[in-house]
Design a protein that fits this description.
The structure holds three protein chains of three kinds. Chain A is an all-alpha fold. Chain A is built from twelve helices and two strands, in the order αααααββααααααα. Chain C has one domain. Classes of the chains: A mainly alpha, B alpha/beta, C mainly alpha.
């Protein structure tokens, strides 16, 4: 029982972590809390669903969803943040404009797909079951877990070892100085939004596959948990997102098992609250990917 | 009035200020000079509570200032200006000065909420006084301009007016002449001298501009690498070999 | 005749909603005026709503006694919450307050006396449109006087430069806490008004989404004055009604208008009215 809960927690936690990475990346680079992230999570899932229903193989559909999510992220930056950057607006305006774009994205999904919950075809999500000791899980779940981990490792490597990563870190540290050494700020911002949003979209697809449900409101079930993840792990830290996501996933499943499912979300927010008060930089925060 | 007794401030392994002992008497224009990075601004931050000393004590008339919060220190009568203007950017010059009167203002919230006449009269009196103060600094015409639209020199004078409005016993000025042209600097000097003479405020003037300090201050202390290397009258300082070395050393390499 | 009555009721419900939303927008505005972003006001609203409803239905208290007690409880909760979280800055404060709001909502679902997810039904209709608007007028007036007072100047100073403010003898922590408590009180009072102008309350009335909407009211209306949040609440409450014909696509236009306001009217919609009248 305990082991089964741990395994479940890890699976869902890895998806939370992947989703939260998008928040952390954009906050780290632009100091913006992007509240439209959850809507891209949702639209990524819809895109993959539409592609799968058209007969596209699942892996290609996931890539398609990621691409769509990335492009929606770049669009988001252009319409919601770029105009505010240009006039050096305060921190409040971007928060509201991201809310506005989130409303537009959710509204579009509502208009196109309606308010009902949609499902992937059964044969897409049905995969063999694996039993390891006392834990049982599906191959799909395992793939979700490993896929999330692989993406996070890839992102970390991208930031640490590539020219692009060096530019991102420089901009996160000090945009003006980065510009002086010849880094194209706008290009870095656009690429950051693309990557953060593509990851968010993949998280949405994996989340939808895990529960086999896609709906226009699915983002709201993760948007606050994503915040809890980055606070727990440390804002701006990629390993922190992973650790935070896994811990939140575990605490959820364990509190369902041992306390009461009613208070499941309260535990998550109580953790968030305590971390903020006791250690606002999170478990792995402070340095974050600025020094990745 | 203000005494620093063997005050040390360490950041990591670096001594920003080391064993600094200073005594700034009442009604005196006291200069604090030194090359860049000598610890002058750190000294001001220590006095105003923006930083806590690692060792040593700071007191005002025998009352300890270190370990007090910045707002408590301000309420005890220590006002300051900043190296780069810290006016409230979206308020007018006049409103900035009125905020400066916070400690002494008596237009209480309850009085305002109830529309109680004395509270309203007091609010009006604050604005009148603020306007007068701006007038004294030659800013009558700019009183209703939004702070961030003011020219740099005007911002400095508004900041000075705001600090004076707090009716401090001691005023700390952090490089008030930076970025001013010679005419403006001259004028600023006269204003500072008048402050001390007419209002009886003690002034600690932190400056880069040697000419200004030499001509305005009665007594001067020199910092280098966080340590006081000399203290005395302008004439003594001018002829102090250590000071000459510290300054020439820096200026030759600059 | 029945249609007329129905139309009146529909309109008065909308009118009530605007008034309550305006109060909520003001509750966020107070903390913003002191430079603090709070997204936990739904928690305060819920505390006061449940408390006042229970006091009236079970304790047989009179409405105003119950509403003010509920609001005072919300303010007390604001002080308790503000104490630890006001050290946090910007986004971190916002996230902490979100956490608080969610915790309150989850407790509302699970406590034995709050009626669970279904909430409490059969609340007497003790609040009229007149009560809502006279409350709004009084609170708006008091807040306007506040901006003119020593405390109001201190709020603005803290919002614009906290270091400079404390250098002038302003105690930032105390004023922030006061702003937080005032905001909580207003949100709580609005919560009581809302509860007694509809037949039932449930935890979903106090969701994060609603907190975000309320913030949008204040910012879109303009946080430079007391009138801004009221104008914003009126506009953004009416907008979805006008856009009803768009059905499922409604939020697209709703969001687009909010976006346009934020980008092209940095001082909020109220600034247009102001500019007109200044001419």
């Amino acid at each position: 029982m305990l082991i089964q809960q741990l395994v479940n927690g890890l699976f869902i936690g890895s998806v939370y972590a992947l989703f939260a990475l998008g928040y952390t990346l954009i906050f780290g680079v632009l100091d913006i809390l992007n509240l439209a992230h959850a809507s891209i999570f949702m639209l990524g899932a819809f895109t993959a669903l539409v592609l799968v229903l058209k007969g596209v193989p699942l892996l290609v559909a996931i890539a398609g969803g990621a691409l769509a999510g990335g492009l929606l992220g770049v669009l988001l930056d252009r319409v919601a943040f770029w105009p505010l950057r240009r006039r050096q607006a305060g921190p409040l305006a971007p928060l509201i404009s991201s809310i506005a774009v989130g409303m537009i994205y959710v509204g579009a999904a509502n208009g196109i797909f309606g308010p009902d919950v949609r499902h992937f075809p059964f044969d897409v999500v049905r995969t063999p079951t694996i039993t390891l000791g006392q834990a049982t899980f599906t191959l799909a779940q395992l793939a979700i877990f490993l896929g999330s981990l692989a993406l996070m490792v890839a992102l970390q490597a991208l930031l640490r070892y590539t020219r692009f990563g060096a530019a991102v870190r420089a901009v996160a540290e000090n945009p003006r100085a980065a510009q002086l050494v010849g880094i194209d700020l706008e290009a870095v911002y656009a690429q950051t939004f693309f990557i953060a949003s593509a990851l968010g979209a993949v998280a949405g697809i994996l989340f939808a596959l895990n529960f086999n449900a896609v709906s226009s409101v699915m983002g709201s079930s993760v948007e606050l948990k994503g915040l809890a993840v980055i606070i727990l792990g440390g804002m701006g830290s990629i390993p922190g997102s992973l650790l935070g996501g896994l811990l939140i996933g575990l605490s959820e499943d364990l509190s369902v098992a041992y306390l009461s499912s009613n208070f499941r979300d309260a535990i998550v927010f109580a953790i968030l609250f305590l971390v903020l008060i006791i250690r606002p930089t999170g478990l792995l925060g402070q340095r974050g990917f600025r020094s990745a | 009035m203000i005494s620093l007794d063997a005050v040390t401030k360490q950041y990591g392994g670096v001594h920003a200020v080391k064993e600094l002992t200073l005594e700034i008497p009442e009604r005196m224009l006291f200069g604090l000079i030194g090359p860049n990075g000598a610890g002058k601004t750190t000294a001001l931050n220590l006095i105003t509570g923006l930083a806590a000393p690692t060792r040593g004590t700071i007191s005002l008339d025998g009352r300890r200032l270190d370990r007090r919060k910045p707002y408590e220190i301000a309420a005890l009568g220590v006002a300051r200006t900043y190296q780069t203007s810290r006016l409230f950017p979206y308020m007018t010059a006049l409103e900035n000065v009125v905020v400066g009167m916070h400690v002494h203002a008596r237009d209480s919230l309850v009085g305002q909420l109830a529309g109680w006449p004395p509270a309203i009269a007091q609010a009006r009196a604050l604005r009148t006084r603020a306007r007068e103060l701006l007038g004294e600094l030659g800013l009558s015409e700019r009183a209703d301009a939004v702070a961030r639209s003011l020219a740099a020199g005007e911002q400095r004078r508004v900041e000075l007016a705001r600090a004076i409005a707090a009716q401090p016993r001691v005023l700390l000025l952090d490089e008030p002449a930076a970025g001013l042209n010679p005419v403006e600097t001259e004028r600023l000097r006269d204003e500072i001298v008048r402050l001390v003479r007419e209002r009886g405020i003690g002034v600690l003037l932190v400056e880069h501009d040697m000419a200004l300090v030499m001509s305005a201050c009665e007594r001067i202390a020199v910092l280098d690498f966080g340590e006081k290397i000399a203290e005395g009258s302008p004439a003594q300082i001018r002829n102090d070999p250590k000071v000459i070395e510290a300054y020439l050393g820096v200026e030759n390499s600059a | 005749m029945h249609e007329l009555v129905a139309a009146y009721h529909a309109h008065s419900a909308l009118l009530n909603e605007i008034g309550i939303n305006a109060l909520l927008a003001l509750s966020v505005w107070v903390t913003l005026a002191c430079g603090q972003l709070s997204l936990g006001n739904m928690g305060f609203m819920a505390i006061a709503a449940y408390a006042s409803v229970l006091l009236v239905t079970r304790g047989h208290w009179p409405f105003f006694g119950a509403a003010l007690t509920g609001a005072a409880m919300a303010a007390a909760a604001g002080l308790l919450l503000g104490w630890p979280v006001l050290r946090l800055r910007g986004v971190f404060l916002a996230i902490a307050t979100i956490g608080f709001g969610e915790i309150v909502r989850i407790f509302a679902i699970n406590l034995p006396f709050t009626g669970g997810a279904e909430g409490i039904a059969g609340i007497p209709q003790l609040v009229t449109t007149a009560i809502i608007y006279s409350s709004l007028a009084l609170i708006a007036f008091l807040l306007w006087r506040l901006t003119r007072s020593r405390a109001g100047r201190a709020f603005a100073a803290i919002a614009q430069d906290e270091v400079a403010a404390s250098g002038l003898g302003i105690n930032p922590a105390a004023y922030k806490l006061a702003a937080f408590a005032i905001g909580a009180f207003i949100a709580g009072y609005a919560g009581a008004l809302a509860a007694f102008s509809s037949f039932f309350i449930s935890p979903s009335d106090y969701s994060f989404g609603r907190a975000v909407d309320v913030l949008a009211f204040a910012v879109a209306g303009g946080i430079g004055s007391v009138a801004g949040p009221i104008a914003g609440a009126a506009l953004l409450t009416l907008l979805p009604e006008w856009l009803r014909f768009l059905q499922n696509y409604r939020d697209v236009v709703n969001g687009a208008i909010l976006l346009l306001v934020i980008i092209f009217l940095p001082q909020g919609v109220w600034s247009i009215v102001r500019r007109r009248s200044a001419r």
